[in-house]
Amino acid sequence: MQLDILIVAPHPDDAELGMGGAILQFKSEGAKVGVLDLTSGEPTPHGSLEIRARETAAATKILGLDWRENLGLPNRSLEATLDARRELATVFRQTRPRWLFAPYWEDAHPDHLAATQLVDAARFWSKLTKTEMPGEPHHPQRIYNYYCVHLKLAIQPAFVLDISQHWERKLAAIACYESQFITGRPTESTSFLDRLRDEAAYWGKTIGTRYGEPFTCREPLALRSMCDLV
Question: Taking the complete model, does pTM exceed 0.90, yes or no?
Answer without folding.
Answer: yes
